[in-house]
């Protein structure tokens, strides 16, 4: 990092793997807020920033969907900061009328109270039929029976309404009373929805290369006075949409060499390219912060090859078991995110971490050179 180059940090907490911090309803947002104070640019993903009704605007944070983050980390895509994105909404045909109206009211509220540019909404031509699944390790994932219907709806919004970010609202199976949901409400286990949400947003971002995030549509569940604070944000409204709309409104656009299909969809973006000085590149990332057991993801592996600091956080346990050392990655191990904040602050100050400890080893002496 040179004095003229903004310090850039990437915060990764993979979704659907039961992260002790960041595996619930926006409970990693305090981590993002703290890290944003010791870096010039914080790049992270919706799983970190989304808290249903709760959100927090961070002027120097970049809200990047997981597939897009993987492409950015690999150096394939750049990130173009924006002032404001026009947003479109895709509704799953499976959503009941009353539930759809609740989401439309949330969108209207975001237009009226936050001033967001929400252009249009469209319903899929077939029910998406989301199915939730769990791996042997306990991580969540899911499938869509009609992904083609989702893509047709998204394409209509891009072409007919001129949107540059898409919020998807899919009807998810109600599972009130299930052991998995009850564990999640108590701040334990894995978010049963997160893995399927990632599948949905990945599909749209991979196809159209524009920002996208998902808000599941669920019937309201009965009151439980003993819900964990980490899960409480999802208990207080009819929809999880507000945080998604707030995040998408300033999500950076993806920049790459456009295909013929993209030229037809994004005529107004063709002047941008990866060499533009305003585009953020993966080579500019100085620090990447990852749960200590979650280094198996594409973004973490890619960024660890070039970042000045790779920070593994031990306290944030997950269902994964891939550590930096398992992949030959040299990482600074800290126990808490508070220590991670300190590690970045020390690096930026040019202070070696050993100088902040009470005991400093004597300077070693190299043996004399042979005659």
TrEMBL record:
InterPro entries attached to this UniProt entry: DUF3326
UniProt-listed Pfam families: DUF3326
PANTHER family, sorted: OS01G0127400 PROTEIN
Name used for this protein in its record: DUF3326 domain-containing protein
Species classification: Bacteria, Bacillati, Cyanobacteriota, Cyanophyceae, Leptolyngbyales
């Amino acid at each position: 990092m040179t004095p003229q180059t903004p310090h850039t940090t990437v915060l990764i907490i993979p979704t659907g793997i039961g992260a002790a911090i960041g595996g619930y309803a926006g409970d990693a947002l305090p981590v993002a807020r703290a890290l944003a104070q010791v870096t010039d640019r914080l790049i992270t993903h919706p799983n970190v920033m989304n808290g249903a009704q709760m959100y927090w605007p961070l002027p120097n944070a970049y809200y990047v969907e997981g597939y897009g983050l993987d492409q950015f980390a690999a150096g394939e895509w750049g990130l173009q900061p924006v002032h404001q994105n026009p947003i479109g909404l895709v509704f799953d045909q499976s959503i009941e009328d009353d539930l759809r109206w609740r989401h439309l009211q949330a969108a209207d509220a975001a237009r009226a109270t936050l001033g967001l540019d929400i252009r249009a909404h469209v319903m899929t031509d077939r029910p998406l039929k989301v199915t939730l699944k769990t791996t042997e390790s306990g991580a969540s994932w899911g499938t869509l029976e009609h992904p083609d219907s989702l893509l047709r709806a998204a394409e209509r919004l891009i072409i007919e309404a001129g949107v540059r970010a898409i919020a998807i609202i899919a009807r998810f199976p109600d599972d009130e009373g299930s052991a998995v949901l009850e564990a999640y409400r108590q701040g334990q286990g894995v978010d049963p929805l997160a893995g399927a949400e990632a599948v949905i947003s990945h599909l749209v971002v991979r196809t159209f290369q524009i920002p996208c995030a998902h808000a599941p549509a669920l019937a309201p569940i009965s009151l439980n006075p003993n819900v964990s604070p980490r899960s409480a944000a999802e208990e207080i409204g009819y929809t999880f949409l507000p945080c998604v709309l707030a995040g998408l409104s300033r999500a950076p656009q993806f920049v790459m060499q456009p295909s013929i299909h993209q030229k037809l969809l994004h005529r107004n973006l063709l002047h941008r390219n990866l060499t533009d000085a305003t585009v953020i590149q993966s080579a500019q990332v100085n620090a990447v912060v990852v749960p200590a057991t979650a280094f198996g993801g594409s973004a973490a592996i890619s960024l660890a090859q070039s970042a000045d600091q790779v920070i593994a956080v031990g306290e944030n346990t997950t269902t994964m078991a891939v550590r930096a050392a398992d992949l030959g990655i040299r990482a600074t191990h800290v126990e808490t995110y508070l220590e991670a904040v300190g590690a970045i602050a020390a690096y930026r100050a040019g202070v070696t971490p050993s100088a902040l400890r009470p005991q400093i080893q004597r300077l070693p002496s190299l043996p004399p050179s042979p005659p």
